[in-house]
Write a structure and sequence with these properties.
By secondary structure, the chain is an alpha+beta fold. It folds into two domains: about 60-130, no CATH class; about 135-280, Roll (Carbonic Anhydrase II), CATH 3.10.200.10. It contains five helices and 16 strands. It has helices at about 5-20, 80-90, 100-110, 190-200, 255-265; strands spanning about 40-45, 50-55, 60-70, 110-115, 120-130, 135, 140-150, 155, 160, 165-170, 180-185, 230-235, 245-250, 255, 270-275, 280. The strands form four sheets. Strands 6, 7, 10, 11, 12, 13, 14, 15 and 16 form a nine-stranded mixed β-sheet that branches. It has a three-stranded antiparallel β-sheet with strand order 3-5-4. Strand 6 (about 135) and strand 7 form a beta hairpin. The longest helix has 15 residues, at about 5-20. The radius of gyration is 24 Å and the shape is extended. The protein binds zinc ion (ZN). Zinc ion (ZN) binds near residues 148, 150, 167 and 236.
């Protein structure tokens, strides 16, 4: 998935390009890795499912595998391949979600899902990184706090202001410094990202927060993260004293006239529609429901 970490990759590439030194001999092999498997705990649920869990807290990754004891070995010759085909359909829709909804839900978590059948078992696997959207600057991790919009844009590029500007506010929880990623919107083709926000429900008035029950991937609202203006500054709203590294993406996004009106109607000058919770954006329908 396309994530904000890409900014870090660019910074890292710049640094590694400077420090690259020609090496004539192959590096020595590192020490052998210990192949230790963490202790596995079994538990039987009321519905008969056995859960086997092994924890290793040094890796920010969760892998869940559902195994069903029915697979190719249960097929007769006339139905060869049926088990794998049936198992592969598990990610293509359920009673409550269709294929797109399943894919979107998994992608919003930065994860992946797969299913299939082997000889003895059919499996569904999900792997996710449990951390939320974050920005890494020179090795320091900044977590997404919230994002909001201004109309017109707060930044002017070559003296020109855009119709709207989106600010994603990140905070380094260790030292309290902030980083803001700004995207300027110009009138043009409609934005699918803004459509998702509008469908999720915008706040009633400027200053209100909206919490979304749907996961919204902030990365979808970014243009080319490799091209940006950056500067050290302060927040544009109180408290303005905090240190902020600003990244204003060079390529503007576009929004339709109708979308601009939907936002500008509320904005007047400024509003703050969405707050991130553990990296996911959470909505309430009523506008003031702080549901965590
Ligand atoms: Zn702002």
């Amino acid at each position: 998935m396309y994530r904000l970490r890409i900014l870090n990759i660019i910074v890292a590439i710049l640094f590694s390009a400077v420090t690259l030194i020609a090496q004539e001999t192959a590096p020595l092999p590192g020490p052998p890795k210990s192949g230790q498997i963490p202790p596995v705990h079994d538990k039987k649920l009321a519905n008969g499912l056995t859960v086997a869990a092994g924890e290793r807290h040094t890796i920010p990754l969760v892998t869940v595998q559902l195994l069903v004891k029915s697979a190719a070995s249960d097929e007769d010759i006339a139905h060869a391949g049926l088990a794998d085909m049936t198992a592969s359909l598990l990610t293509k829709g359920t009673r409550t979600r269709n294929a797109t909804q399943i894919a979107e839900a998994i992608e919003a978590l930065g994860g992946s899902i797969s299913s299939g059948a082997g000889w003895n078992t059919s499996t569904v696997s999900v792997t996710i990184t449990p951390e939320g959207p974050e920005l890494v600057l020179n090795g320091a991790v900044y977590e997404l706090q919230q994002f909001h919009f201004h109309a017109l844009s707060e930044h002017a590029v070559h003296g020109h202001r855009g119709a709207m500007e989106q600010h994603a506010v990140f905070k380094n929880l260790k030292d309290g410094t902030m980083a803001v990623v700004g995207v300027i919107y110009e009138l043009g083709p409609k934005s699918h990202f803004l459509d998702r926000l509008i469908n999720a429900g915008l706040p009633q008035k400027s200053g209100d927060e909206t919490h979304s029950g749907h996961s919204i991937d902030l990365a979808d609202g970014l243009t080319d993260t490799a091209a940006y203006y950056t500067y050290a500054g302060s927040l544009t709203t109180p408290p303005c004293s905090e240190t902020v590294t600003w990244f204003v993406l060079k390529h503007p996004a576009t929004l339709s006239k109708a979308q601009f009106e939907a936002f500008n109607h509320i904005l007047g000058n400024n509003f703050r529609p969405l707050q991130a919770r553990n990296g996911r954006v959470v909505r309430s329908t009523a506008g003031h429901d702080h549901d965590d």
